[in-house]
UniProtKB/TrEMBL annotation:
GO BP: carbohydrate metabolic process
Segments forming domain Spermatogenesis-associated protein 20-like TRX: 12-174
Source organism superkingdom: Bacteria
Name of the molecule in the record: Spermatogenesis-associated protein 20-like TRX domain-containing protein
Organism: Povalibacter uvarum
Short name of one Pfam family: Thioredox_DsbH
Length: 692
């Protein structure tokens, strides 16, 4: 490379050509950043320079801290540019690379990773030889200064090539051992992992504040869904699992009443830094809010608790209001920081609040959300539900309904006031996988709580994906600034397929059904491990990396393999397509050893296992009142029941659905496994024979 091509201080670097907001945040760094690609990799090979790989995302607080301390500092940048080829990655655009190097970090350092992820790679094979996460600009937290570390790593690379080569081979061998063999054909898949997972979750459960384990506390929506389903599965037995219901609903209650939930605008933050769900890490991610929206709506109809209904309605409204693009796709994240300070957008001072509310409204609001308590966040007050409204109403000697009106009035006024502040940054990437999660959440909430506008929103998102991110029978992963980029990953196909199936239960569309089948075919053709079962994270024609991952555990999002198994099984039953059912069963066999060892880390896969062992009930309703029958059935929490209301005049149906013919009036067919009932001609008859 010509010396003039190097980026001098004060000019933009190569990241200025990217569309990722996270990469663009670093486009004016004095660091000579490259995006991941052949230009950077070839340069590292030719100059025999190790690669400094930095992975983060736009809403990451500690990514901003490291950027300010080190990447914006000319002296640090000079050391980086002298000794390394520097590559910056947005983990939301390249989850394949993030996944590989997070695993490598855990192998090398023997502890979990996170963001920012800082890895040092060999230029020859791109295998890491050292790594970490955040490094400070000065020695603190028991860590060296970043510039000192850079000098030591550069020296190690120069002087210890034999050691690096030996470690590289050991790392590659460890990667090869990550995929245990599938269960033998004669191994019976049983309910045992479900039983063990239920016991393990009970051991980790916080009986006072909900959630699992100690601080920091993450929502873990797959765990909550698993427990809610466990209760429902046992609800008609002699000993219903009320403890599972308690664990699920207490956790949701504490989250929805706590500071994890945005008490003014709706939506959930990433995680709580404390045991009490009081102070969150303030970033708000679409991938959390899609599954939590689903859960809140399901819990609302399962329990009738108005708190869950409010959380669902407000979260869906927040997604539409603040996170849906004019073109229809859902944006990715809201940053934790504004004006350089984490949480500044969300916190309050009692004096400011009192100035804008009536004394009566302030009396209710301050007691409810702790403004009459000590400050709980850096001298400010973050809203957290301290006292029940009934208790406050009794203390103030007013009816509870009046107290609710005062509280609603205060929340409305303060939201308008907050909207005038400097907003956190919003990452306006549209990610196919996260849109799939949000589509599912919107669809479930629309039919559970009778909100067709939420279904409208989900359809707009799906239509955007089909028009902008579906090319020649393949998905793309990311859309930003009019450009759709990056071959899609397993999660894109699996989450979107599941979202389409949820949307079909809310609003039938033959076009969407055909799209679901196309997604399923692409999954089988491009991602399936034909030898062992399950699905790789990348397609068979993806860029060759140091490892092609295939994992079954839930992470911040549900396991892509689990959602693929669940969705393929459901679509296979709906269409009578045994190839989909067989692929789902092979996935469960591939995951079986993982389910036996650590079942409570695979709760999404356990839901797929549950439906494999006891297939869901599928109701096909045809006729003029099909949607009304569906809406009545949707008022009951029945997670093992799928209802499709298909118009009488629907054409071009697959054979398995076409044979469920429309007749005079409205009729329904109840299918369990591959067996379907004779047509039922009344809603009462249908309700009488369904699992409920």
């Amino acid at each position: 490379m010509h010396p003039s091509d190097r980026t001098p201080t004060g000019r933009t670097n190569r990241l200025a050509r990217e569309t990722s907001p996270y990469l663009l945040q670093h486009a004016q760094n004095p660091v000579d950043w490259y995006p991941w690609g052949e230009e950077a990799l070839d340069l590292a090979r030719r100059e025999n320079k190790p690669i400094l790989l930095s992975i983060g995302y736009s809403a990451c607080h500690w990514c901003h801290v490291m950027a300010h301390e080190s990447f914006e500092d000319p002296a640090t940048a000079a050391v980086m540019n002298e000794h390394f080829v520097n590559i910056k990655i947005d983990r939301e655009e390249r989850p394949d690379l993030d996944r590989i190097y997070q695993i490598a970090h855990q192998m090398l350092i023997q502890r979990g990773g996170g963001w920012p992820l800082t890895m040092f790679l060999s230029p020859r094979d791109h295998r890491p030889f050292f790594g970490g996460t955040y490094f400070p600009n000065e020695p603190r937290y028991g860590m060296p200064a970043f510039t000192d570390l850079l000098q030591r790593v550069a020296g190690f690379y120069k002087d210890r090539q034999a050691d690096i080569a030996q470690q590289s081979e050991a790392l590659q061998q460890a990667f090869a051992e990550l995929h245990p063999p599938a269960a033998d054909a004669d191994t019976a898949l049983t309910e045992e992992p479900l039983v063990v997972a239920r016991e393990m979750l009970a051991r980790e459960f916080d009986n006072q504040f909900g959630g699992f384990g100690s601080a920091p506390k993450f929502p873990h929506p797959t765990n909550i869904e698993f427990l809610l389903r466990a209760w429902r599965r046992s609800a008609t037995s002699e000993e219903p699992d009320l403890q599972a219901l308690y664990m699920a609903t207490l956790t949701l209650t504490r989250m929805a009443e706590g500071g994890l939930y945005d008490q003014l605008g709706g939506g959930f933050a990433r995680y709580s830094v404390d045991r009490f769900w009081m102070i969150p890490h303030f970033e708000k991610m679409l991938y959390d809010n899609g599954p939590l929206l689903t859960l809140a709506a399901q819990a609302a109809i399962a329990t009738g608790d108005p708190l869950f209904k409010r959380a669902a309605l407000e979260t869906a409204s927040w997604i539409i209001r603040d996170m849906q693009s004019p073109q229809g796709g859902y944006w990715s994240t809201l940053d934790a920081d504004s004006e350089g300070h984490e949480g500044k957008f969300y916190v309050w001072d009692p004096v400011e609040v009192r100035q804008h509310l009536t004394p009566e409204a302030y009396d209710v609001f301050s007691r409810r959300f702790g403004l009459d308590q000590q400050a709980n966040f850096e001298g400010q007050w973050h809203l957290h539900g301290y006292r029940p409204l009934a208790e406050i109403a009794a203390e103030l000697k007013i009816p509870e309904g009046e107290a609710q009106e005062k509280l609603d009035e205060a929340r409305r006024i303060l939201l308008g006031l907050r909207n005038q502040r400097v907003w956190p940054g919003r990452d306006e990437k549209i990610l196919t996988s996260w849109n799939g999660l949000a589509i599912a959440g919107m669809a479930v909430t629309a039919r559970s709580l009778q909100r067709p506008d939420f279904a409208d929103s989900a359809v707009r998102s799906l239509d955007f994906i089909r028009s902008q991110l579906w090319r020649d029978g393949r998905l793309l992963a990311v859309h930003k600034d009019g450009q759709s980029r990056f071959p899609a990953y397993l999660d894109d196909y699996a989450f979107l397929l599941n979202g389409v199936l949820e949307l079909l239960q809310t609003r039938w569309s033959g076009e969407h059904l055909r799209f679901a089948a196309e997604l399923a075919e692409a999954l089988l053709a491009r991602f399936e491990d034909k030898a062992q079962g399950g699905f790789y994270f990348t397609a068979d024609d993806h860029e060759t990396l140091i490892h092609r991952s295939r994992s079954f555990a839930d992470e911040a999002t549900p396991s892509g393999n689990a959602i693929a198994a669940l969705a393929l099984s459901r679509l296979g039953l709906l269409l009578g397509e045994t190839r989909y059912l067989d692929a789902a069963a092979r996935t469960l066999r591939a995951a079986w050893s993982s389910l036996e060892r650590y079942p409570h880390g695979h709760t999404a896969m356990l839901v797929a296992l549950e439906e494999h062992l006891d297939p869901p009930e599928i109701l096909i309703v045809r006729g003029e009142e099909a949607s009304q029958w569906r809406d009545e059935l949707a008022k009951v929490y029945a997670p093992s029941r799928l209802t499709f209301a298909i118009p009488a005049d629907a054409s071009g149906l697959p054979e398995a659905l076409a044979e469920k013919r429309a007749m005079e009036g409205t009729v329904a067919y109840v299918c369990r496994g591959m067996t379907c009932s004779a047509p039922l001609h009344s809603l009462a008859a249908l309700v009488a024979v369904t699992a409920g």
